[in-house]
Amino acid sequence: MLPSLKLPAQVSIVHTASAPPRIVKGTCLAQEGDELTLEVPSDAGLPPNVPLIVDFSAESGVNRAIVVVLGNRNGKLLVKVTRVPTPDKREFPRMNGGISLRYHVLSRTDGHAAADAWMRGGAPSGQEFEPDPFMNFSVTGLAFDDVESCRADDLLGFVITIPREPHAWRGVASVVRVWRIPIDERDESIAATHRVAVNFVELPDDARVALGRHTERIQEAWL
Hints:
Elements: E1 9-15, E2 22-32, E3 35-39, E4 52-56, E5 64-73, E6 76-83, E7 95-98, E8 100-105, H1 111-119, E9 134-137, E10 141-146, E11 155-161, E12 168-180, E13 194-202, H2 205-222
């Protein structure tokens, strides 16, 4: 199931079932078929028999694997790979659901400095917009309907709130595309005239994990 890895490889291990979600940095030291030996901090607290997401560094040869903990061996964590998502399949696909978003356009002349200031806790540098919360989302970006508030390549500073999550997160996104919504596709109950697609540039790891959980809840509701 698991191709031969180029080791040692840096890994990020995500325990999505913990509250709050836990992200552990470590190193994959050895591979025996579908069993991996990981070096992680002694206080990692990763439980057995619970699916964990392991993201590998680019040079390892594999992007991601789903594993369960088997135990410890000589002070190292022993895990077994249960699934390897195919390269062209997103672990968390795009979904439609409720996301609360508040955003503003960062300085068009010094956007990266404005982004740094925003992530350090600065005040919005322009008018804030709050689109309808029903939008398309994934762990990598959003697509939402709003007035014509921005244009392609703008940087947006935003605050995002995810249903059933206790936190709100700041982030920065890059506008990929802005296009006019055809008249016959508009929702007359809101003032939106354009659709905006953005990719996350900066977003805390625990916010991405929360978006993954939100995806899983919607998928489970469908089933």
